[in-house]
Amino acid sequence: ETGVTQSPTHLIKTRGQQVTLRCSSQSGHNTVSWYQQALGQGPQFIFQYYREEENGRGNFPPRFSGLQFPNYSSELNVNALELDDSALYLCASSLRLAGGLWGETQYFGPGTRLLVL
Amino acid sequence: GDSVTQMEGPVTLSEEAFLTINCTYTATGYPSLFWYVQYPGEGLQLLLKATKADDKGSNKGFEATYRKETTSFHLEKGSVQVSDSAVYFCSLLSRANSKLTFGKGITLSVRP
Fold it and tell me: pLDDT band at residue A113, thresholds of 50, 70 and 90?
């Protein structure tokens, strides 16, 4: 069974640039969630994708956007980068069964560490 | 909204000491509860979980019981090892929106 993978592992950008982070979900999973973890803090929910559609969003501005592909992999895009966007970005995958209730266990990837200068 | 409160850290213990890390939560409905662990430079690893009241999650000697009456999910281990040194996060998963809400995390250091 393949776990959650993310790329790249590290990234350095300058203010105003755009960035794309990638995530491959664990085999058999169909739902991907993205979290931002600032240094010394707990992760904060950005958004979740299920069946290629956004299914819930946290308190993040529209310049944070995402995609989910038919193979359930996902991208997180951030436009107009700000210094405060420097953080560890974590992707988590889970399996939601058709007709099932929300509440599935989420498994995390190793994260992408983004530094904005 | 949902929230998770963890005890203030950091915590430093000697090897083989008893560990308790307190966690309380506020949520609508009946969330699932989790403890995740983060080793330096890594992502989050699921340590244990409980999905309903009075459930006990356990893994690698760690235990936590879902206490609905006190809205708590305290983490315990009878004898810690140096390899347990990490950051521990308590979290809840809302059944309404499948969103994980985390506490601030607590750093545990275990000295030989």
Answer: very high
The verdict on a CB contact (< 8 Å) between B32 and A105 is yes
Closest C-alpha to A115, from A3, A7, A2, A13 = A13
Q: Which of A90, A101, A102 sits opposite B44 (nearest CB)?
A: A90
Q: Which of A67, A70, A72, A68 is nearest to A27 (CA)?
A: A72
Over residues A24-44, the mean pLDDT reads 93
Q: Are B104 and B8 in contact (CB under 8 A)?
A: no
CB B91 within 8 A of CB B34: yes
pLDDT at B34: 97
The Cα–Cα gap between B86 and A65 comes to 31
Task: With beta carbons under 8 A apart, name residues in chain B contacting A87.
Answer: none
Q: Cβ of A92 under 8 Å from any chain B Cβ? A: yes
Our CA-based measurement puts residue B16 at a distance from the nearest CA of chain A, in whole angstroms, of: 27
Task: State the pLDDT confidence band at A1, using cuts at 50, 70 and 90.
Answer: low
* Residue given tokens 């008893």 in the structure block: B18
Instruction: Work out the average pLDDT over A87-105.
Output: 81
